[in-house]
Amino acid sequence: MSASYPPLSRKITNLVMLALTGLCTLLVLAVLLTILGYLLWKGASSLNIDFFTKIPAPVGQSGGGVENAIVGTLKLLALASAIGVPIGLLGGIYLSEFAGGWSAFTIRYTTDLLNGVPSVVMGIFVYTLVVLPMHHFSTLAGGIALGIMMIPIALRSTEDFLRAVPRSLREGGLALGASKSETIFTIVIPAAIYGIITGIMLDIARVAGETAPLLFTAFGNLYNSPGWMQPTASLPVVIYNYAISPYDVWHKQAWAAGFVLLSGLLVISVISRMVLARGKKLSHG
Amino acid sequence: MKPFDLSQLSRAHEVRFASDEPADEKLPWPQFTVADLNFFYGPHQALKEINLIVPNKRVMAFIGPSGCGKTTLLRTFNRMNETIPGTRVEGSIRLGDKDLFSFPATRLRRVVGMVFQKPSPFPKSIFDNVAYGLRLDPSIRRNEIADRVEKSLRRAALWDEVKDKLHQSANGISGGQQQRLCIARALAVEPEVLLLDEPCSALDPISTAKIEDLLFEIKDLCTIVIVTHNMLQAARVADYVGFFLNGELIELNRAKQIFQNPEMQQTQDYITGRFG
Lengths: 285, 276
Known about the structure:
The structure holds 2 protein chains of 2 kinds. By secondary structure, chain A is mainly alpha-helical. Chain A is about 75% helix and about 0% strand. By secondary structure, chain B is of the alpha/beta class.
């Protein structure tokens, strides 16, 4: 028997590994906190009530806000969800519960490819498909571009959460005389619903920050955009336009808009984590 | 349906149900009559030339080592195996005097209920778990459901433990309670047969005892077929025991006969623990 257990070499290895993993965790956290802090530091002077309630002021005048871009982003996300969520949801249900062999492979493969399409290509695609025939940029076109971008993740995350529902629950439903579709809609989907909602919320958060697909579709607007057929401002495009402008006031507002956008995404992501945790709690007692 | 002779239990293909046949013990009519049954998972044959009769309103236990086909046979009784791609059945099974395969699967499974090895409550409330099967049947009126849920929970000896938390998640109760909930859920639709696939293998001895007591209580209501690895359990609950080995039914007889004086050497070896 040696005097110390565990031996010194293992203690040292343990310490080194612990320090390394801890350092990496700190690094990741530091990046996020630095970005948030930097945005706040640079944009804080522009963050006031006007920023959320006024449309942009003409160049040279002080004040003004990005109310039109905030509303525009919300409208774009609503339209994108109306397109992407039903298709992703139903596609995910089909893929998890009904597709087999060859068709499942094809759908999964093409969905993953669609997910890999560069967002700027998606913008050009919708520009050709919607903007050119209509002869003008619109909220509609922007929403369609973001909606198509939402489909792959909504579909695959729905599929993943449905497949995670144990076989015993499906068999339990079938054994009580439920048909396959009754089992899916009354047992499998309710069992996975919190996960599915979480996946979709994170999907919305992901496209909320997309800039490239909106450049040739929603375009931008200095004023409020009524209805769905006019070009509209959106937070990511405002950040882009303001950041490349020569005016210092706009630079500050771009920082502030970045802070607002990132905070919004953080809130969505925290809420979706809470939804998932609540779902876990419900299904594990 | 006529009564039949105990000696015919494992000779379903010869049974003619003639009134003049000699019979040393009258049994109720056959619940399942299995004749020349073969079952395949793809190229693998899991059941070979099975012939047996499951008597009505009795408890029959299937024993045998893992992979011997006893669960497969149980799952052909409610055609659960049909949900697995690549499976194939040959031969005939009758439920009462009707062909098992003439039923729509969903209707058959309301007559032949099943409880699985692992307690699998739906992620719903206790009440909704038991009401699930009732709600699938449009002929059951909504205002009957609460009464029938209570009746089933009482039968499953669970009512007193859960009556104050009927609307809480079924995942919050203990494993033994969950398994009794699954039995209550299956009994709620008043099946003729209850199939149990190793229902106690995930439970502690006290919960196991409660479930065995429960089986005694409900055997007047329905035919019970139970697969178990626990030979003491088979001896305690079963009227008849079938011993399976490598997909074949080696011996089927009264439980006492199987455990005290088996005819076949393989049965003797298995129950004395020489293999398996």
